């Protein structure tokens, strides 16, 4: 282990965000993966479950256990909702930094969280300590944080798309619309009939249109930026592909700013390593960010009207989960922000 | 040939709407397919090009020719835009009914048509004779028509979704949004890099967001219903699947009518053979109409807000093209409207 | 109910072969579906589970019950293995014909069956009464049968492909190879991680190469034809598509018959309504039989060598399951063999 | 440019193997990409055609030109067949090493080459100078080579799978069978109807069963190993996925060696960085090598019989093309053989 290396643990290493963390961290160069936990696959070799990792990860899954995790410098929770909140406090007390990829610390209001996630919050006091891990908004706070609430996949794509418009007060924030489409890996590695290829392949549908758990997270984030409560209609859809999220965002322009939007977006993201504003006339395509930590964005005002359309794509498992988690880790430990993330999308 | 049978010709039988017409008409029972034309495949057996038709269609492609087509009772144009307008007049003069699946007669204003389709209209005088073949609006006129302009695929899904809201004046028609997603067969059977599976598979993107040819067609249709010019933002997207369109429609409700919308839609479409309003809480899925002439619709007002969301799905090649054309034919010739179209979607 | 109509029951109506039976029988015209059972969905409307059937099937699932099934003329078992053998005897005693789509009665040797299916056979005496429902071999026996063991999907594709070669003793039957590829619907509508789209999409693999349950069924069928025990290597593969099976069959030719093979196949299947020998040089494509009951076959002897290659495609849910079951039913009840099955594959 | 860096040119940078070379070389660290040529896109920015490369490749396409290519240390030809043979001689004369990913130098017999590729060979004298770039066979010769003929994608998967069996004389080489399946990217980035997603999606078929261009290449390679002419039946198939090749290989065992095969394969590939023999009972899955340079292999003797089945998977664009080309380059220039290739497959 090199002098500058840190030790990382992954709780819940058998889901898609877990294996994606493994893929990224195995090649990171400044991280030694020392613990990967799984209740269901305890004792099994990681690469027996994931043959794609043969030759790269020489570890067995272990049961989640605070003692062994406490030897890490950082622990990632790639667990279902409700797990991180049970272990975070103990780890933080042992000076372990915690990066939670689940939703446990994303919503500031514990009662609101309980309403959407259907359980009591186990450590509501910690919520205010958590920093929402969207570097494009909270880079400075992330650097000093011990507990990171990694944004959801939809919230990442939607917030990065809306951000410049709302920061500059250019749109009616009471009637925002986010029509968002996700690949099926967003549903996780969980045996369920609707996620079968026979069910979700060759078909397209909206779901949870009456209210999806990412709605309060996005509303909270955009409201903080707007400094007032936003009104958001958020409709998620399921795309017959594995990876990728595309958000099509609609807002009503206030004032005659259509011509300046391209420049505004380019300036806003000029120094962001992972947000890329496409040239005028281009449409972002999820394949161009597949496997990478990039968000690609385009802005259009169709027919010179009052409605601005923003198109935003990410890989839901990278910038929408594991990649963003590593980006946060890099910031927290003073590494180059893009370290281990400078891969190129797998095209075709 | 039975007493009640008619003779049909298909111009442009090698594209996807052409082969879909062949599939439907071959089993229709009251139609004899007597001519199928193709410039490129003249002389070739139809089932040599389309082995799925072996045993069902015993014909060879011929060059398009008014004389042979004039022996038909009805001629379908499943051609690229700009072909039907060159032949329709002669066929109508020979008492042949014409059903055009292309865009030649969809736009009432020939100048507007030229702007979007990039060519002069060859017979602008005929445009006013054409009936827009959306039976759910124009059933009566279709029965008496000699020339049908079959609606585009996107316009069918969008108009059927918006219709009840606009007929009853329930929404702000100046800010309608149609976020629409189509399978790749909508691009036709044309060699083109963007339609390769390596390009369009496992990826999702918007396209033509600045202005798509179906925008004026939809605007025209909705404006006629609204009895005023509507404002529409229309963003089409490409889904990595072959068949199916899903439209997600957004509008701002005027007045407190959210609770009545389900009943309103059910009443509006109660007697429509091919429009099906789903129970509250269901989301339509394109697979459930794949290969069928059905449109399935759901209505939701998320979080009890002011924005109504309508979800509408069709098979772009059936209700969005060949099936609707046959539905029009059935009406024109006094057959049962659903004759030959009572198939069930192919699930899974 | 028409004079010539029969009443049918479906046990296990919630799986893919069950819903495919519903799709076919709903349009059959001579069958009234009177009972559809499901333990898990008892009381639920069929079209609530399968919205593709809205307007076509007006029934609720009921618990499987001999009394209600005994009112049927025919009962289809679209159940997991091990269910039909528990109920068949009682139904047969009540003069109900039974068509079993599962494997319970496919293997003549009960001990062999137990070895492969991991349970004792509940009614071994019935096995000899069962007719193996491959009409291309057993048409005459099917007509007089009361109990049909419908062939498996792989066995249908493989046997139809090998049949003419083996009937005429043209190949070395001790070294037959069947390299077979199936869409994922073959795994059924069962929540399981390997069948998730994220697992089976965009990927290809062999499975069960050491021994698949369809191996003894195929060997038994081919051995009966060969009048000696055949030697078969059978390797199934999973294709990232929903429907379709393609079998690539290899055998060593005995004698100089390569040139006569095309004619031989054409003659063998000349009067078969659902087996179609393609012209020389064509390759069958699963899409051309999707949703249809057809089997399309091609024969090639590469480079004029000693190895003959037969390519055979079916839709695993139609000719490989529900369609073949209906073909058997038609034969058993004296209907036209192709009644209700004359659909055309859904292309594209 | 670092001291140890080399300058590389890519001729034909717009196809899938070209863009894959760009993806790999951009992150290689010891290579500066100095020229990327394209006749059709001359002058266009590379990342305008391939937005996945934005931020990674800051170059424009140029016309292919010996002068500018001569400034490189190595030139890759990612061109259609017939191009490299026109330029290789001039480049070699200028001391530029040439790595040809096309088929121009793969077949030792120029007449045989002409027969399969339909053109005269432009520089038959060079063929004998070319080293066939399969490191697992020719590592030593590759290190000293100036001209590399990179193996085809099918030949790589098939040869690596058969190699240990044939090297040890364990099988009847007169009746080898290779049933091979490829994703659609193997057809390249070329506008063609059969490669449309509407044609190749959701379908499976064999093609070119009477004789595919990779047949003589595989036969030549295996015959060299066997030291006698092998007899091979090679049937390629098209899988509805983008990347990946899976080969299922069949051979008749000579002698009682079934039990030793696993150990034999493990020993043969123990020191190969990119060939990985899976544990007994595992089946390789193309997803586990997607985007990586790995070949994963399994061996099984079904039912303890005489037929051995070898399963071999690669990513056709990496180990089957661009990755293998870089592996060759690493060997030629004395870099670590795996440099730039130690990525992990993108799963899911």
Overview of the molecule:
4 copies of one chain form a homotetramer. Chain A is of the alpha/beta class. Chain A starts with 5 loop residues before the first strand and ends in a 16-residue tail after the last helix. Helix content of chain A is 30%, strand content 20%. The first copy, chain A, folds into 2 domains: 6-129, NAD(P)-binding Rossmann-like Domain (Rossmann fold, 3-Layer(aba) Sandwich), CATH 3.40.50; 154-316, Dihydrodipicolinate Reductase, domain 2 (2-Layer Sandwich). In chain A, helix 8 packs parallel to helix 10 (214-226). The longest helix of chain A has 15 residues, at 153-167. In chain A, the strands form 2 sheets. A 7-stranded mixed beta sheet of chain A has the order 8-9-7-10-13-12-11. In chain A, strands 2-1-3-4-6-5 form a 6-stranded parallel beta sheet, with helices on both faces. Chain A is built from 12 helices and 13 strands.
Profile the largest sheet of chain A.
Answer: 7 strands, mixed
> Would you state the CATH class of the largest domain in chain A?
Alpha Beta
Which class best fits the helix and strand makeup of chain A?
alpha/beta
Might you state the CATH topology name of the largest domain in chain A? Dihydrodipicolinate Reductase, domain 2
Greatest interface by residues involved: A-B, 50 and 50 residues
State the helicity of chain A in percent bands: 25-40%
Query: How many beta-strand runs of chain A?
Result: 13
CA radius of gyration of chain A is 20 Å
- CATH superfamily of the largest domain in chain A, please? Dihydrodipicolinate Reductase, domain 2
Q: Quaternary status of these chains?
A: homotetramer
Number of helices of chain A: 12
As for the number of domains of chain A, it is: 2
Low-confidence stretches of chain A: none
Between the first and last Cα atoms of chain A, what is the distance in angstroms? 36 Å
Beta-strand residue percentage of chain A: 15-25%
